[in-house]
Amino acid sequence: MTSIKMSFFEMWRSKMERGELLKRANQLRLRPSQLRRLLGDSGVRAALQKTRMASLLPPVGTEVFRPLTPASLQKIKQHEDKEMELQTKKRSKEVTENNQPKPASDLEAGKPLPFFYGNPPPQLLNTPLEELDPFYQSQKTFIALSKDNIIHRFNAEPACYLLSPFSPLRTVAIKILMNSLFSLFILLTILTNCVFMTMTDPPAWIRMVAHVFTAIYTFEAIIKVVSRGFCVGKFTFLRDPWNWLDVMVISTGFVAGFVDFGKASVLRTVPLVLKIITVNRGLKTTVGALVRSLKGLSSVLVLMVPVISILALTGLLLFMGELKHKCVLWPNPHITFHDNITFHDNITFHDNITFQDNITFHDITTDPVNYYFLPSQRDALVCGNASDSGRCPEGFSCLKAGNNPNYGYTSFDSFGWSLMSVVRLLSKDYLESLLQLTLQASGKAYLTTFVLVFFPGCFFLLSLAVAVVATATSQREEADVAELKRREEEFGHILEAIKRREEEEQEACRAALSPESAGENTESMEENQRSCSSCWFVFANFLLKWNCCGCWRWLKQRLYIFITSPFFDLGVIICLIINIVFMCVEHYPMTERFERTLSEAHLVFTMIFIAEMFLKVVAMDPYGYFQVSWNIFDSIIVFVSLVELFVHDSLRWLLVSGQWLLVMRVFRLARWWPSFHMLIKIIWTSLRALSNLTLLLLITVFIFSVVGMQMFQQDYEDHVCLISVDCHLPRWHFTDFFHSFLVVTRVLFGEWIEITWDCMEVSDMTTCLIFFSMFLVIGNLLVLNLFLTLLLSSFSTVYLLDPEEEEQSTLQITIRRIKRALGTLLGKNIHHPEVDNKEVTRKKYLDFTSVASNQCWDLNGDHGSQRVPTAEAEKTSEEEEEKEKKRNPEVQQHKDPEDQNGDPEDCCSDMCYRCCPFLDVDTSHGRWRVWSNFRRACFSIVQHKCFDIIIFFIILLSSVALAFEDIHLQHHQVLKTVLVTADQVFTCLFLMEMILKCIAVGLKKYFSDAWNWIDFLILQVFLVSIAANTFGFSELGAFQFLRTLRALGLLRAISRIQGLRVVVQALVRTVPSMLDFLLVALVFWMVFSILGVNLFAGKFYYCYNETAEEIFSPEVVNNKTECFYLMENFAEVHWKNTHLNYDNVLNGYLTLLHLALSVDCVDVMYAAVDATWVESQPVYESNTYMYLYFIGFIISSFFTFNYFIRVIIDNLQRQKSAGKQIFMTKQQQKYCQSVKKRMMEPQKPVPRPENGLQARLFDLVTKRSFQVLVVVVICLNMLILMVETDEQSEETQYILYWLLFVVVILYFTEFIVKIIALRQHYFTDIYNILDFLVVTVSILGIFFNDLMDKYFVSPSMFMVLRVVHIFRILYWAKGIRKLLNAFMMSLPALFNMCLLLFIIMFTSSIFCMFNFAYVKKEFEFNDMFNFETFGNSMICLILMTTSGSWGGFLIPIMNTEPECDPHMENPGSTIRGNCGSPAVAIVFMVTYVCLTFLLVVHLYIIVILETFKSEDAEPLSDDDFQMFYKTWKKFDPEASQFIQYSELSDFCDALQDPLRIPKPNPIKLTHTDLPLLPEDRIHCSDVLQALATQVLGDSGKMNSLKARMEEKFMADPSKMSCEPISSSLPGKQEDVAATAIQRAEKNHDEETAVESVDVSALL
Asked: If you placed Cys at 1337, which of 760, 842, 1104, 1358 could pair as Cys (CB 3.0 to 4.6 Å)?
């Protein structure tokens, strides 16, 4: 039976349980007495006879670990003879493979010895021993155990035909090989060799050192060969693939002594560094697990090929040659031409056109002098001839000239370059530049191509890749957990057997070994492991435990009570917070008095923390103080503070590292802050538990750094002038190891394309592409595995609890006591439950021992707060829903009308009625009855479905009207008048809506709903805006800002769309946890912000020449004083600062956010690397090691992001457990279920025609081979289109034209054949309709190709649509089908999330258009990309959302004087100036970036959840049912749902696992007892139910399956009309009985005949 898998949320909920299981499984040990009973007691063995370990244990009375002797080889020989006899019996008697022994997984080489063997004697370590695995006992092998009981397996044959296992030389070699010192020596040798590899200019003696290294590696290989043998037999030297690395290292080392490898030296470098993996057993295991997980990526890789090819082909057909259009200076020519020249869209010139001075057109278009360049730009300005493309300045014409941008590597001119651009889109590297260039050349309309084709395609691939890796990580985790459970069960079986045996032997005194003995045993083992030498105890008791006299002990006791008091911790926390505040107020520039105050405060806090440490040391003794790891952390910071106080000012530069240690004081808050503690624990746990994966990532980075330096160092030095104007090396190069490491690290962080361009320009293009592509794939795969393993693995047992479930911290207890004391002073009786102060404080004090401790929080804590069972959770969720309804009765307002009561509720609240009794009137009679009827009428109107629809359309119209209020509105007075009138009309309609709702549902209920509050507030904005326009106050700043808030009007549509409401509610429910995460992240980032202020405050300033638009060199201007001197004489000189800097902590936060969420963050790095001193001119790369600060922050952001995802998933899990809807409405969920059912059901086949010709064609087109043939033709069509290039010759174009013509003929032939065979049923398949469209357009394109290409779309684009047939073929593969189905099932949730993202973008674009339309055009702003119109604003926001490049848009809208002119006149507008608003810009940009980032993360989570759902705990999946239906279709082509019983055997054999019953199967099929219908027919549902019962058994899943099948088939008239007349089991019994009767009768007749013959003979 298929093992049941856990769903994603079940796996997430069980993380803590799995973590506890991991702890217990790692502590399983048997005491010596238990081990002796297990190995020597036959009764215990008998009790364990049926367990798996029984075959692994040695016979009773024999030694477990037996040295290898010649007699052992004789035993092996006997086992071999028995094995040969068994093989003979197998051939003669057909012994099955299941009866043959298999290798034990616990006894594989490289694994530790199982616990039930115990520890071998020390003298038997590193010596040959007899085999423990029964599988290898019949083979010539032996084992040896190294330190930590690691199993090593060797070949027992003579090594190299010379050395037997008993040879002294081989024995010594085995001891050397398995000695840990030998492995350490080899590891140190490899590391030393790696250090020499990093040398840029190695000395001459390096060759001699290389020979020494080669000799050491040769000696290692000789030891391995002598101990294992060379190649003959198992477990020899060459049989291990890792040993091939030794062969490569040694062979290349000897060859390198005679031949200079040059760039080929990487053939030695890579195997040499990979040898580190062979030394570390954990690394080898990790690599093996990663390689096995790649199998799951095969489906994604297969999908990736056609999808990327389609995207690349689309780019080729749409944008081929477009990026070559440039602004060319057009002189006044004396033109001599033969043809007429027209300056329209496509200008065709000939080389014989001449201008003045005999300058030809070719000379003009190829000379870069004639191109228009923007300042500080390397490439010419790209333009286009479309109406919405980029424009050229006056005097320039847009012509196709020169090369493509970025050295010619950014283009769609061929399939290869288009493919590279698509990969660039996929990796989101420098995406904004590619998008801007393409839109400038082709027009803004092509943005829809990116939004609808390229971006969804890239998201499809990335999301599925992440989902598959997450699934593989989860499966590895489940496999490890299953192994741990098996080990724990075996341990329990052993203890139970020993206990039972002891009870039998000692009936009088039952000293039973209880299950708790495991825990006692574990504790004893831990104590033994922690035990130290007696000398240490004497030293500790004498110096570290201070118990001098009674007075001293009395003082210690009082101090201990004081330091464990909650008020002491409160005082420390307050001091920490004040100290952090003082660190945060440091800024540039500071006055001397302020700086002196900070120094004095620093001294005071240092003294406070020294006093804290002194009191704790006295109270706890040094021995007890340093047992708590938090105290060790505190003592280190105190020590650094003391050193800093006494170090002379001239040596203070040595304490740069001490600065960040003092900033680490912020992390002390984690001792009392659980959420912050969790983040620290995640970081520390990952460094410990994921050390192998992290080390593997570092090895990969080192390999590519060294390889890059060896391959490209000389090329950069020789051809640097190709990529640098002044022939100086760029910032990113491979000429030394450190810069090579920086390049590789930058590629790992996602920025690779620019470095690849430089590499391809100075070196071989193919080599560079292979190098960067390999590292991009391998590095990202390792990072993704590291991230998901950290997120999903069970070693991280910290679980996010609700605030109600968290235990009260020391701070909470202290605050509660303070409240109680204040209440007592004020005379108020505030009741609180009593708590034992000492116990609580002591428990809390010891709980937060250390993030570095091996113990977890809950190791000694209370385990009562475990998650409740499912039934209790459901009950709790129902109670929570009831409470939610009671707290928020207004939620019912937005439900369906059927759920509403017919009578409206009271208008006002109870408090209003008490304050104003006259409002409480009787509405049952009199004039108030009219009011009641009027309210009922309004209530009926409000509750009508059309009312919400009308309001929804009014909201849309009002939002669309706002989109027209751009900077050009002043030039269209009629449109302006219409918009003003429409604004007033919409406002009146919204006011009427509010009045109707208030009358219908009452003020109380109306203002109890958050959605109504949003409507009300937005309505007030509209009313105030109209009032300001009416009374002439619209020009005031406050009213102008309120007017911009009208952009929020579209948010009202969220409450009218059910899917959006579900998504928003799910996101709102995460707000409390998100706020907690935000606070933790801010405190964590505070460390880097304070450190940034200490390192870079006041150092980012520079002297700038506005006219030349360049920075002065340090030789001209060295500091601020010299720059101010120039400013007095030259107005164009300015002393400027970068917009993103570290002058204060708030600016540091903004800079860090830009680093974390933007891909364009190199400018901040360059400023930091060039910084020298405060108020000094920057020097190029004066301190390159400042890159390490940013690398450290990005690595820390990795853990912060992991914690962020953890918070999101934990909230989703809670909502799922509480029965909340997540991302999809109930209707959408029902729709997904119905789609699943339709996909499972067999499609009704097209009836076969009766005509002979049509029947033959029908048989042809319905074969799978025909579909495969069609796909082959489609692939050939794609290859023909891929061959096309921008500069192809006329002959190539002619050949391609006729090849495409042949393809069109083939398509047309296919269409004719299918339409004849399928008749009217042809158009019932969506694929056939698509084919018909492609054929029609292709035929039209033959005759009207130029016309369609100019005014419509190239016919070749329609041919690309036929590639969907490839997915039809790929859908046959089970793995790909699961991925596609999972993505399809996630589409409704993705649609809801994308719709919310669009609303946010729409609202933000209008807001930007109202606030930042007139900002100065610099950085990312130009004539096309700005906030002047709604369309341009949407383009900019799409760029910020998809690529994360928002820094270039933030800086211009933050500009203030003197960077901009606040008095500049804007033609046609009353608004003056081109400055921005820093406060509004920062608030808007941070809010928008964080919101969109949150939504994009949820998009990936949606796909991951659906992928896990497709892998959920169903032994019979939808794919199995679909397989059943497809197989049934072959036996029932008429779709009658019946087959003959005689066909059942063939049908069951034709199925696939797990439903398949292979032949011979008559007996098994007989026992299924299938109902037999007339004419011995059986029904589809009966067969499926019987086969499913074989898999599921009589379980709840089987009952649910029966219910589904009854619901599906009971409505079938063919099933209902045929009642069963018998069943297969009685029928078979009758057949057997009839056969027996016939045989008996036949025997009786024969006997009677014999008797008659005998009688006649006698007569």
From this structure: 1358
Q: Which of 1054, 947, 950 is nearest to 1000 (CA)?
A: 947
Say what percent of the chain tops pLDDT 90.
Answer: 26
Q: How far apart are CA 1474 and CA 133, in angstroms?
A: 81
Max mean pLDDT among 28-42, 492-506, 746-760 falls in: 746-760
Helical (H) or strand (E) element with 35 = helix 32-40
**Residue whose pair of structure tokens reads 């021992």 in the numeric block:** 849
Q: What is the DSSP letter of 869?
A: P
- Tell me: pLDDT of 886 over 50: no
Spatial separation of the C-alpha atoms in residues 563 and 556, rounded to whole Å = 10
If you search the block for the tokens 């050192």, which residue do you land on? 209
User: What angle in degrees, to the nearest 10, is found between the helix axes of 810-825 and 566-584?
Assistant: 100
More confident residue, 339 or 1633: 1633
> Long-range contacts: 920-924, Cβ < 8 Å, 24+?
none
Instruction: State pLDDT tens for residues 1057-1072.
Output: 888 999 998 899 888 8
Query: For residues 114 and 491, is the Cβ–Cβ distance under 8 A?
Result: no
Q: Look at residues 1090, 1069, 1087 and name the one whose alpha carbon lies nearest to residue 1144.
A: 1090
| CB-based contacts of 792, cutoff 8 Å, min separation 6 | 11, 12, 15, 470, 473, 474, 477
Please list, residue by residue across 1436-1469, b when 16 or more beta carbons sit within 10 angstroms of its beta carbon and e when fewer do.
bbbbbbbbbbbbbbbbbbbbeeebbeeeeeeeee
Query: What is the rounded CA–CA span in Å between residue 760 and residue 410?
Result: 12
15 CB contacts (<8 Å, ≥6 apart)? 792, 794, 796, 797, 799
Least confident of 152-161, 1042-1051, 1179-1188: 1042-1051
Beta strands in 611-727 (DSSP E): none
- Chain mean pLDDT for the chain: 79
Around Cβ 997, how many Cβ atoms within 10 Å? Answer: 24
Q: At what angle do helices 1290-1318 and 1326-1343 cross, to 10 degrees?
A: 140
- Residue with the bigger pLDDT between 124 and 1508: it is 124
List, as one string, the DSSP characters of 719-757. SGGGT-TTS---SS-SSSHHHHHHHHHHHHTT--HHHHH
Helix (H, G, I), strand (E, B) or coil at 511: coil
Write down the residue that tokens 């035909």 correspond to: 161
Give how far Cα 831 sits from Cα of 812, 820, 828, 1095, Å. Answer: 15, 8, 9, 51
Tell me the C-alpha distance between 127 and 121, whole Å. 11
- For residues 1174 and 1184, give the distance between their C-alpha atoms in angstroms, rounded to a whole number: 17
Calpha distance 706→194 (Å, rounded):
9
Nearest to 195 by CA among 276, 254, 257, 263: 276
Alpha carbon separation from 774 to 257, 284, 711, 747, 779 (Å, rounded): 30, 21, 15, 11, 8
| The pLDDT of residue 17 is above 50 | yes
Task: Look up residue 406 and give its amino acid.
Answer: N
Residues 976, 979, 983, 985, CA torsion sign: positive
- Please choose, from the candidates 121, 114, 130, the residue with its C-alpha nearest in 3D space to the C-alpha of residue 54: 114
Q: 243-256 and 266-279 are packed helices; what angle lies between their axes, rounded to 10 degrees? A: 140
Cβ proximity of 786 and 690 under 8 Å:
yes
The predicted model scores a pTM of 0.82
Confidence of residue 842 (pLDDT cuts 50, 70, 90): very low
Residue 692's contacts (CB-CB under 8 Å, 6 or more residues apart) are: 280, 282, 283, 285, 286
- Eight-class DSSP state of 808: P
CA 961 to chain CA mean position, Å: 40
Q: Tell me what pLDDT residue 919 has.
A: 62
Q: Tokens 């039809």 sit at which residue?
A: 1368
Confidence of residue 742 (pLDDT cuts 50, 70, 90): very high
